[in-house]
Batch of 2 targets.
Target 1
Amino acid sequence: MNETLIIGGGIIGLLTARELLHAGSTVTLIEMGETGRESSWAGGGIVSPLYPWRAPDCVTALAAWSQRAYPALATALHDETGIDPELTSSGLLILETEALTEALAWGESHGQRIEVIDSVYLHETEPELGPRPPHALLMPEIAQIRTPRLAKAARRSLEQRIPLREQEEVLELLVEGGRAVGVRTSKGAIHADRIVICAGAWTAKLLEQLGNPPDIEPVRGQMILFYAKPGLVNHIVLFNERYIIPRRDGRVLLGSTLEHTGFAKTTTAEAKEELYRAAIELFPLLRRTPIEDHWAGLRPGSPSGIPYIGAYPGIEGLFLNAGHFRNGLVTGPASARLVLDLMLNREPIVDPVPYAMNVERA
Ligand SMILES: Cc1cc2nc3c(=O)[nH]c(=O)nc-3n(C[C@H](O)[C@H](O)[C@H](O)COP(=O)(O)OP(=O)(O)OC[C@H]3O[C@@H](n4cnc5c(N)ncnc54)[C@H](O)[C@@H]3O)c2cc1C
């Protein structure tokens, strides 16, 4: 393979560039802002879909592959860059139990450990937790990754090896005779043999010129961060569609909202209040803990959260890896490997059909 351009330097673009490098390709990555500062920075970094039994099977397939790949990836990035992305097996505690039978059956059929725990054990394992349902679900093997560090490490590992063209927006795809030949950016034209679009929430905007953009739209998510001490929260805890994530240094994140507000990446006082209330309901001691930060990110929303991975129909040399919605961190490593498999005509790691551009998403 010759020169490949990657458009978008979020986690999907960074990992796709890494795969291309490992395959011996020449890569250039173009990012309109700074790499790893959009959704991939804002995300919580849970290495699992939120209520995993609700995820479409094709998302589960990417998540399961990535869950197996993450330990080696995190170690490699740490060794290469000195930046530890803090992959941590905190375990996922789910306080809703109305779907108990469904969740257990899903765990059984997908080889994922799910245990039912009683309120006594719940109290032992999360002593500061407010709600005390008679039962909860624990997925002890679920991990989290510290998103800003993951993107920083991925960037650092690439920066000596490929051109990273930041602060350069791709304005137009150059297509000649049904073949992608390059892009026009805010700084001029760049020619290439292959282009992979990893532009997250902006993907459809970029592909509008081709007349048939994928169904990807921005979905805002807001989070708050508490400057807490280690030990207050021990697991990732999921309750009422809200989750709390404890980092190794004690900080805890509470997320997140789901808002269809276009490309506005602003935070709102209402969301902050709502997230704060959810946090102190879950862990009342957080009342005494300062909020350190509050931010918003734009998820690349797609129907059923199924990403578009593979060739763009009708244009040779053009590929997509975008639309990962709420699961781009957990599905990122598999998505990057899969798009490469398809570009190189290798045996794909999973059945690629559900992610194809022309497949109807429910
Ligand atoms: C609050 C929140 C919580 C989340 N929690 C989780 C979680 O716990 N687990 C999980 O798996 N996922 C989570 N996600 C989702 C996850 O963050 C995304 O699915 C993932 O980051 C998408 O990665 P990406 O690289 O496609 O997009 P991005 O990180 O947004 O990267 C796309 C990049 O493309 C660039 N770009 C766009 N257009 C152009 C252009 N024309 N020219 C040049 N560059 C361009 C952008 O500047 C951007 O840097 C969360 C998201 C949010 C917002």
Note: The CA atoms of residues 310 and 342 lie 6 Å apart.
Target 2
Amino acid sequence: MTHTEVLVIGGGVIGSSIAYHLARRGHQVLVVERAQIAVEPAASWASAGGVRRQGRHPAEAALAIEAVTHWPYLEAELDADVHYRQGGNLLVAESADEAAQLAAFAAQQREMGFADVRWLDQAEVRELVPGIGEQVVAASTSPADGQADPALTTRAFAAAAQHLGATYWTETPCHALVVSGSRGAIRISGALTSRGDVAAEAVVLAAGAWSDELAAGIGLRLPMQMHALQMVRSTPAPTGVLRPVISPMGRALSLKQLNNGSFLLGGGWPGDIAADRHGYTLRPASIAGNWAAACAILPAVGRQLVERAWCGLEAISADEIPLIGPVAGFEGLTVAVGFSGHGFAIAPAVGRAVADQLAGQPVPELDGLSPARIVEPADAQPAPR
Ligand SMILES: Cc1cc2nc3c(=O)[nH]c(=O)nc-3n(C[C@H](O)[C@H](O)[C@H](O)COP(=O)(O)OP(=O)(O)OC[C@H]3O[C@@H](n4cnc5c(N)ncnc54)[C@H](O)[C@@H]3O)c2cc1C
């Protein structure tokens, strides 16, 4: 039996940011990761890496503001190159109607505390992105937003956590959470892993899209669903064509240019999840749809070829915002799950907030993300298996 103060299950960007912030405060942390850090098909490997506040749910606003402030210093703090670039985020309108909606949207974003967001007319958009499609008539810009490499960021958090004393068990699946007590007053006291049993004062479930399986084993039903989200990367174009990350209002697309010149296309196009919930198959129609949307917004994409496509498995929660915090009736357990396709950007703030919460400090910025809003109380849940 191994003893630790905090056991984190899952070494993705969320689990590793939490481990890093806990280790920084001097806590004893063990991270149990089934695979290596940030490998296919984990969301933190597949992610588009957009660092965005625009369009966030108000419940995430405080974390998003904190994270965007933190991102410019993250590389120095973690002592790693994570390909961070503060190129801004551009939400674009392709009709007069959409342009009017965007003007109201930009004002609403400022009211949410995103002070730099402003509306741009066609000439201003063209100045920012000279090659943008001629039908683009306006945009809402969020200059402090940006992009980074998700796998590099995740590995940087993991390495920094270990540097500060956290232990990582990779290639180590967690088979089950260990419970004591009875229905309605269950205590989570550790986990069974392929390297043996672990006893912990606190357990953090951060196993991404697979968290529901471990939760089900203790009779906890997490209202979230696994999705295969598809990405497409182009062959490298000349660098410097596109600085901000672009999303059109009326199309499923996020479009950015990577450091090597390749365009990276996302936007929530679906692939198919394998029956074992560990693999996926690509949908050619999703590749074609995503590519067509990108070519319409930035014709320079059409001069390239599809170099690679892939999927990441991500959990979308019932209300499409994450569940972060303790769960009533499951003492000793904290969940950080259901990031719904936008957890990467806020990961630095999530790690800080969960570490503070575990230390007993007030964290009002997590109030709107508490599992209590949608998770049924323990006595309405099925009994532990
Ligand atoms: C295609 C795609 C594009 C995205 N684009 C963006 C974006 O532009 N901006 C943004 O902010 N967000 C984006 N996201 C979302 C973001 O990437 C995720 O919210 C975030 O990476 C989730 O991190 P995680 O640590 O919770 O999950 P994961 O990265 O999936 O990590 C969970 C880890 O738990 C491990 N694990 C699972 N079960 C067990 C077990 N039983 N025992 C031990 N280990 C286990 C897994 O192996 C995995 O490493 C995107 C997601 C996808 C899929």
Note: The longest strand covers residues 306-317.
